[in-house]
Amino acid sequence: KEEKLLVLLEVARECYARGLQFLPVHLQHSPVAKFAIEEGKLRQPLMALGGLGAKVARRILAERERQELRTIRALRDRCRVNSAQGAALRAAGALAGMPEDGQLTLF
Fold first, then answer.
1. What phi and psi values does residue 91 have, to the nearest 5 degrees?
2. Is-contact 39 107, C-beta < 8 A?
């Protein structure tokens, strides 16, 4: 596991040395497993987050193609994201600006 991390860090260092810039994981824009070029930068895939496996990443992609994921509750319910996976998405900033649920607050 440490050898894989070392290889990843070496690749990341090489990318930064060549002037490549990275965009963070984004719930609505990140692909499942491969980096994507967006605005001349590399968008990190959903699976770049620890604890978010291929199965959940594919469910997120399928559900957001079907209908936009507008709330964290929709993410949990439609994609069956557990609390640890939700915490990883939140920590990465992938849920920034997304309301907890679709309920309106009047007061």
1. -60, -30
2. no
Question: DSSP code of 42?
Answer: E
**pLDDT per position as a tens digit, 3-15:** 877 887 898 899 8
Give the pair of three-digit tokens for residue 89.
């998405």
The pair of structure tokens assigned to 11 is: 């690749």
Does position 107 have pLDDT exceeding 60, yes or no? no
21, two tokens: 């810039």
Helix and strand numbers (H, E) in the chain are 4, 3
Sort residue 69 into left (φ over 0), alpha (ψ -120 to 50) or beta: beta
Three-state DSSP class for 37? strand
> Any idea which residue has 């309301």 for tokens?
99
pTM, two decimals, is 0.78
Q: Which is nearest to 64 in space by CA: 24, 103, 28, 105?
A: 28
Q: Provide the 3-class DSSP secondary structure of residue 78.
A: helix
Place of tokens 């399928």: 62
Q: Specify which residues 14 forms β-bridges with.
A: none
